[in-house]
Design a protein that fits this description.
Elements: H1 17-31, H2 36-43, H3 47-54, H4 62-72, H5 77-86, H6 94-101, E1 106-111, H7 122-134, H8 140-156, E2 164-170, H9 172-175, H10 181-196, E3 200-205, E4 219-223, E5 229-234, E6 239-242, H11 245-261, H12 265-277
Parallel strand pairs: 1-2, 2-3
Antiparallel strand pairs: 1-4, 4-5, 5-6
Length: 280
């Protein structure tokens, strides 16, 4: 009789379509007594990939799901279920990033246009998603999922030792109103509270930086507990998590240059307070 690892992660199929897919995949694998590596050899991938799909850290592609159906003889059941996973609010690659973010010892982020999720109030997040629903770029259910994720991501950072969070926001993030005046004002208050925390640094990259701004798109660099580095960036439909230090180190260097050119935290706080009061 095969014994499963004692530290095996429990799966909650109600958590998301991705979790439901992973739970069903594990259940059928268990029924056959296969290890993740044994299933992987039949599908043509790695055991690490099977683990990531089962625990919801990596969404199943249509090709992967079709291979699972072939191995288990389930018709197109997994392929159809994978479609539901891909139609969730979270773009491909982001769930995997969030899992690493929750363990990171240092988080360096740069955002353009909107306040980043880790710094948003839930009311700001809801206003942002309400506009996406209005434009029919997302459904009300997907909007609720995204707002819920904001709360879960922020909660995961309340731990000991606290992670160091360095945030550089393009000036447009604080110039763009979101929701009612009360929502915007509360968001300003949240930013000011964030700047006062002992484990945070908040800076504004002013418009006057011009071409000296090294990034044109949002970027995040994570330092993990073992001091390894990861970077994360998104296109419209996909997120990319980079683990190869050869590619991450130049991004970290550019981030340091961004911090050097951005306003100091004191000057950034002063700018936020001016914008909050409606003064130029």
């Amino acid at each position: 009789m095969r014994r499963w690892p004692l530290n095996r992660k429990e799966l909650d199929p109600e958590a998301s379509p991705s979790a439901q897919f992973g739970q069903r995949l594990r259940m059928l694998r268990d029924e056959r007594g296969w290890t993740q590596d044994e299933l992987a050899s039949r599908i043509g991938c790695s055991g690490t990939h099977i683990s990531a799909v089962e625990t919801g850290r990596r969404p199943p592609t249509r090709r992967f799901a079709a291979s699972v159906d072939k191995v288990f003889g389930t018709g197109d059941r997994f392929e159809r279920q994978s479609l539901a996973v891909r139609q969730t609010a979270l773009i491909e690659g982001f769930p995997e990033y969030v899992a690493h973010e929750a363990r990171a010892s240092e988080i360096r982020l740069y955002e353009v246009g909107v306040i980043p999720g880790l710094l948003q109030t839930l009311e700001y997040a809801a206003a942002l998603e309400a506009d996406a629903v209005r434009r029919e770029s997302t459904t009300p259910e997907q909007a609720d999922e995204r707002v819920g994720l904001v709360a879960r991501r922020q909660a995961s950072l309340v731990r000991s030792p606290s992670p160091l969070i360095l945030a550089v926001l393009d000036e447009g993030c604080i110039r763009r109103p979101m929701g009612s005046p009360a929502v915007t004002d509360a968001q300003f208050a949240r930013l000011l509270e964030f700047a006062e925390l002992p484990n945070t640094v908040l800076q504004i990259a002013p418009f006057s930086m011009g071409e000296r701004r090294p990034f044109s798109l949002p970027i995040t660099v994570l330092t993990m507990p073992d001091r390894s580095l990861m970077s994360y960036a998104e296109s419209t439909h996909r997120g990319h998590l980079e683990r190869e230090s050869t590619f991450v180190l130049p991004i970290l260097t550019a981030y340091h240059q961004l911090q050097a050119e951005a306003l100091s935290q004191a000057a950034s706080v002063a700018m936020i307070e001016q914008v909050r009061k409606g003064t130029p």
